[in-house]
Amino acid sequence: MREAINFLVDRLDGLLPRYGIVLGSGLGSLVEEIRDPIRVSYHDLPGFPVSGVSGHAGELVAGYLDQEPVIMLAGRIHYYEHGDANAMRVPIEVLRGLGVQSLILTNSAGCYATTCRRARSCRSATTSIFQASTR
Asked: What does the domain layout of the chain look like in residue ranges?
């Protein structure tokens, strides 16, 4: 993990992202909104898991979204790919090691309940947990 952090510190050349965003299915194009993007393939990051799911780019993209320094994980490993509940541990800890203060997790999910509205967003307890662990 330390090796991946050191590699990225060199590649980010002084960029200190405050926000991390894990892009779920359908949100990969958000990386195109990043100004001055720095792209790093997961294959180049020591210890980083690589997803085999189609449509997941498998790259880390850092830069500025509006005026905020951000780092995005475009694609991620899934529990069902390897049966490992810690599958995202390394990427999340690497983000923390880079100084990310807030983490936004996204995913594509469906629901059979007729009371659920389309395109509804919800706040996950995971974001609060990540923020609390950085204090």
From this structure: 2-133
Cβ atoms 34, 12 nearer than 8 A: no
- Looking at domain 2-133, does it have CATH number 3.40.50.1580? yes
What is the tens place of the pLDDT at every residue in 38-55? 999 988 988 877 765 555
What pLDDT digit, counting tens, does each position of 51-95 carry? 655 555 689 999 999 999 999 998 766 555 566 667 678 888 999
pTM greater than 0.70 (yes/no): yes
